[in-house]
Design brief:
single chain; 8 helices; alpha+beta; 3-stranded antiparallel β-sheet; globular; 32% helix
């Protein structure tokens, strides 16, 4: 019985390198792009799964909080409670707080943490008030490259001031968080930073309109937001409103439909490093 050789150049795949090859049909490793009911593309951070809605009165303004359950098996939790956020916003200018439509505590997916890692986001919708999004975090360490831009070098200094441990190795920066450091970063810096973006956006709209905001460079926006957060934090400290202990009353959380373990760190995942890029806003 004749046995054909394992390799025969005459029987090669003639579709290799073309659009019809099987390699090109694989799903790309990227964040999936969802579509709404009206076939309008929506960003991934607009997708919430079974969120719990909580309403609060902050500075005379009715504010909505949407809390998405964190992925507890993956070691994720929300470093700040709803009452923590309300206590900080109560010390901010009422006209800035009144511009916020909603504050979302969401759980990012694995691909979102790889391609678009962030502490928080300020979302500006076309027909509505802005939304502040704060991402769930874990105690896993992450790596930054040794070659940092001046902006990321300043961000590294801010992380150290928040209480994160930054260790320089031969090939990368290893940043290890702690529960108190994550709470400090999210509560005292990210929340005020995103509120600064909203205040800057309103200031630009009151001038020459939306085009001023669109044409403004990202570095100018970030500088304004950082300066706003620093000034607000200094004002809170001067008035004695900050810092304060965590407001994690279990009975109050259960009364709002929230679970206390959503806001408690999972220490079993503290030693697992993450090979991911820098945080961004």
């Amino acid at each position: 019985m004749h046995q054909r050789a394992s390799w025969n150049p005459a029987r090669r795949n003639r579709r290799t390198g073309t659009a019809a090859s099987g390699y090109k049909r694989r799903a790309p490793f990227a964040i999936p792009a969802p579509f709404g009911r009206q076939r309008e593309p929506r960003a991934f951070h607009e997708q919430l799964h079974t969120p719990v809605i909580v309403w609060r009165q902050v500075a005379g303004h009715s504010l909505c909080f949407a809390v998405e359950p964190p992925h507890l098996p993956g070691g994720f939790f929300h470093p700040c409670t709803v009452d923590d956020l309300c206590a900080v916003l109560a010390g901010c200018p009422p006209h800035d707080v009144a511009r916020v439509r909603m504050i979302v505590l969401r759980q990012p997916t694995r691909k979102q943490r790889i391609f678009s890692r962030a502490w928080g986001r300020a979302l500006f919708v076309r027909h509505g008030a802005p939304v502040i999004v704060l991402e769930a975090q874990s105690l896993a360490s992450w790596r930054w490259p040794l070659a940092l831009t001046p902006e990321w070098a300043r961000e590294l200094a801010r992380l150290r001031a928040d209480g994160h441990t930054a260790q320089r190795t031969r090939r990368y920066w290893l940043i290890t968080p702690s529960p108190d450091a994550l709470r400090c970063t999210l509560l005292w810096r990210t929340l005020l930073h995103e509120l600064g973006h909203i205040a800057d956006h309103a200031r630009c709209l009151s001038g020459k309109g939306q085009e001023v905001w669109k044409t403004r460079c990202s570095s100018a926006k970030e500088d304004f937001a950082h300066r706003y957060a620093q000034e607000r934090m200094a004002a809170l400290q001067a008035s004695g409103q900050a810092p304060f202990p965590a407001k994690n009353d279990s009975f109050r959380l259960l009364g709002d439909g929230l679970r206390p373990e959503w806001f408690q760190p999972v220490f079993s995942f503290a030693a697992a490093p993450e090979r991911k890029s820098c945080h961004s806003d």
